[in-house]
Design goal:
Length: 208
């Protein structure tokens, strides 16, 4: 199910790493104080996640995540463990609480065809040894004007990509099928790191 990375994309990815590392020199101290976690290291960009909208500036007043969309890291084990309800999109980080603010349901959405093939992608600025990637979707009747809770999500991920401890690519892609849904939903991407107790969380607003 995994797609190989083209040379061109890998080059772009490497440039992004250099930029992120440079930015971390400035922001690193703040990161350690606010989250206590290691500098971090990846985000979902297809479908477009909330942290990408914030980093690109098409959504404003997001706070710290605008400069470090790759740092939305929290405890792994979702949904049994992991970030608490209402803090899922921020990976439980108070400093990134803007990601859980429902903004009256006005987050920009990516238009998707229900049940269609989709290439999910992540930009990884540190290529942690990985257990798997998982993708969850909200249940029918989810209210986009409320903060996300576990009970809002279908209990099983609609896509799991096992990695067996492998390192992901800088531009990691997963071919899968979209869930058969209609209307505004949230897709929650979870990157479960193999050799730490953490995972990375990315919420994407979509319109089927
Ligand atoms: Cu990291």
């Amino acid at each position: 199910m995994r797609k190989s990375t083209s040379v061109k994309r890998a080059t772009v990815g490497r440039k992004a790493v250099a930029t992120a590392v440079a930015a971390m020199g400035i922001a690193g101290a703040t990161v350690l104080v606010t989250t206590g976690s290691a500098q971090g290291h990846g985000y979902a960009d297809s479908p477009t996640s909330r942290q990408v909208h914030c980093a690109q500036g098409d959504v404003t007043d997001c706070g710290a995540v605008e400069n470090e969309p790759q740092s939305v890291e929290g405890p792994k084990g979702f949904p049994g463990a992991g970030p608490e309800d209402g803090t899922i999109c921020a990976g439980g980080n108070e400093g990134f609480a803007a990601l859980d603010d429902p903004r009256d349901g006005e987050w920009p959405t990516t238009k998707l065809e229900p049940g269609a093939d989709h290439t999910f992608s992540w930009t990884n600025t540190a290529r942690h040894s990985t257990t798997d990637y998982q993708y969850f979707v909200t249940k029918d009747g989810w209210d986009p004007a409320k903060k996300l809770t576990r009970a809002d999500l279908e209990p099983e991920p609609f896509l799991t990509v096992p990695m067996d401890g492998e390192q992901p690519a800088e531009k990691e892609t997963h071919d899968g099928k979209l869930p058969d849904k209609s209307g505004h939903h949230l897709i929650v991407g979870v990157w479960n790191v193999a050799d730490t107790s953490n995972a990375f969380y990315s919420c994407a607003d979509v319109e089927f």
